[in-house]
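Regression test case RT-17, inverse folding.

Input:
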């Protein structure tokens, strides 16, 4: 989910929030040293299955989305919109993406050893990475070197990024899907021709734009659009994810529509990787 990577509702009372760019000059040197200074797949945001599995079907993998964070010199977390636009401007997002993937796979290895069940992580990719010819070989090589099942990885690409170079994106998706990883199309529905190009992208998940989810319980048009997306996705064998899920009423409505996964503050707030409550939540859900 880029550039926001972990977008959600407006910060709640008591949650510190910094104005994008405040105190963070867009200097290339500062961003270039981001991994060394504390850029990290710093938080996880769980996804909850939206409705029961079919009789006899295996339960879905427990899924979490990796949210990138940058730690400032004073130790505080910098919101994504304060550094990702500058990183894109200076052409270093592919390097940050690779670093996050390396850290995420190390985390999965650790969890694989600690848990009998193998969880699944969703990792955001920038638009620049979609056009990086060295990215697919990088992923193929790191998968060979780690004890991670490729099915544990879901790469998320935004609809906007995919449309910039549809041919290159489709080629990348096809190659890495052959290696066993999955793909999610994020912010789906934000483009005018979403359904038209969908059949050209071999994605496994559609993350429905949160603009359609926020008011779905009271807006009949939003509800109808989500129902239409869910129906098309079902016909194509694509699973759906609803973002910005804030209330139980919305969760119940989405389950009735047939949405496969729900994500948002009403499901679980993002938390640091080492927070025990993340795994407690997954064990209980």
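Golden output:
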């Amino acid at each position: 989910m880029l550039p926001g990577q972990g977008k959600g509702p407006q910060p709640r009372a008591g949650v510190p929030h910094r104005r994008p760019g405040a105190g963070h000059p867009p200097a290339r040197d500062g961003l270039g040293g981001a991994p060394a200074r504390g850029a990290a797949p710093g938080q996880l945001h769980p996804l909850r299955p939206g409705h029961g599995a079919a009789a006899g079907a295996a339960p879905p993998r427990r899924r979490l989305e990796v949210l990138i964070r940058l730690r400032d010199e004073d130790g505080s977390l910098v919101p994504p919109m304060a550094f990702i636009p500058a990183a894109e401007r200076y052409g270093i997002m592919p390097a940050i993406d690779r670093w996050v993937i390396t850290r995420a796979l190390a985390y999965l290895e650790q969890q694989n050893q600690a848990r009998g069940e193998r969880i699944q992580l969703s990792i955001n990719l920038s638009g620049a990475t979609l056009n990086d010819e060295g990215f697919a070989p990088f992923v193929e090589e790191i998968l060979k070197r780690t004890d991670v099942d490729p099915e544990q990885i879901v790469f998320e690409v935004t609809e906007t990024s995919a449309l910039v170079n549809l041919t290159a994106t489709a080629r990348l998706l096809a190659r890495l899907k052959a290696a066993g990883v999955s793909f999610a199309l994020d912010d789906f529905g934000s483009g005018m021709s979403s359904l038209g190009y969908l059949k050209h992208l071999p994605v496994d998940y559609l993350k429905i734009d949160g603009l359609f989810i926020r008011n779905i319980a009271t807006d009949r048009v939003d509800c109808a659009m989500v129902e239409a997306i869910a129906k098309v996705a079902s016909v194509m064998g694509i699973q759906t994810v609803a973002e910005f899920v804030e209330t139980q009423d919305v969760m119940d409505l989405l389950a009735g529509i047939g949405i496969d996964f729900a994500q948002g503050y009403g499901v679980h707030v993002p938390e640091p990787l080492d927070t025990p409550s993340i795994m407690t939540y997954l064990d209980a859900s």
